Amino acid sequence: MFSALTSRRRFADLTEQEVLALAISSEEDDARIYRSYAQRLRAEYPATAALFDGMAAEEDSHRQALIAAHQARFGEVIPLIRREHVAGFYARRPVWLQHSLSLETIRAEAAAMEAQAERFYLKAAAASPDAATRKLLGDLAAAEGGHQRKAEGLETAHLTEEARGSEDQAERRQFILTWVQPGLAGLMDGSVSTLAPIFATAFATQDTWTTFLVGLAASVGAGISMGFTEAAHDDGVLSGRGSPWKRGLASGVMTMLGGLGHALPYLIPEFWTATSIAIAVVFVELWAIAWIQNRYMETPFLRAALQVVLGGALVFAAGALIGGG
Predict the structure, then answer these.
(1) Where do the domains of the chain lie, and which CATH numbers do they carry?
(2) pLDDT digits (tens, 9 = 90+) for 221-252
C-alpha cells in the first residue's frame, strides 16, 4: 500500500547493503555541506571555517571506512540511494538557503546534523528485528556519536573564546550595517517626515478619512523611495554593508511602518480621538527610535532622545501650525 502511494522506500524495507549505501551517501553529503559552510565563512570567520574544514575531513574518513566495509561485505558496486529516496529519513537544508543563515545558526545547524543522524540510527537499530542489521545500525549510530565528540574537540582546538568573541562581534557589526542601520534610517524618516503632511491635513480638514489617505500615500511613497535609494546607492561590495536588497528592504519597510503608525489611528471616525491616539503613537515611535540608537548604535540615550524627540516635536508643530492656520 505504501509503495503504491509514494516512490520513496520505507527505512524498514531497506536491505543491509542499501542501509550501508545510504550511510555512505549521507556522509558524502554532510562533508559537502561542511565544506560549503567553510567556504562561505572563511573570509570573515576563519576560526569557524577551520572548524568546518575539520568536520568535513572527519566525514570523509567515516565515508572511507563505510566504503571499505561495503567492499568487504557486498563488493565494489554501491547502490545509488540517498536521503530523499527514503521516507522519514532526516533531511538537510538546501544549500541555497545557507546564505541567509546567521553564524550562530550555522553552528547550531551543524550540531543538529550530527545529533539527528545519531538519533535516527539508534531508533532504527532498536526497531530492527534482524541481528545483523541491528548491529550495522548500532555501528552507524556510534559513528555519528563519534562525529559529535570529534566536533567538540575540533571546536576546542579552532574556536577559542577569543576567536568566538571576535567572530560574534563581527557578525553583530554586519547585522547592524545590513539591517539595523538602514532600518533605523527608514524608521526615522517615516516617523518624522510624514508628521507634517499628516497633521497638517488633519488640522486643516478635520476629516479622518482624508487624513488617513494622505498618511497612507505619504508612508507607502516614502517607503518605496527610501527602499530603492538605499539599494541603489551602495552595492555593499566596498563598504561591507551587505546585500543591497536586504538593506533596501529594511529601509523601505521601516519607513512605511514609521509613517503608518500615526496614519492608522485616523481610521477612527471621531477626529479628536483619532488625533489623540496618533499623537500618543508618535510619542512611542520617537522613544523607540531613541532606544534603538542607544541599543545598537551606542548613542547615549539622553542625547538620542533629545535629538529625536526635539526634531519630531518641531516637525509636528510645523504641521499643526500649517494645518491650523
Answers:
(1) 2-159 (1.20.1260.10), 171-324 (no CATH)
(2) 988 988 888 887 766 654 556 678 888 888 89
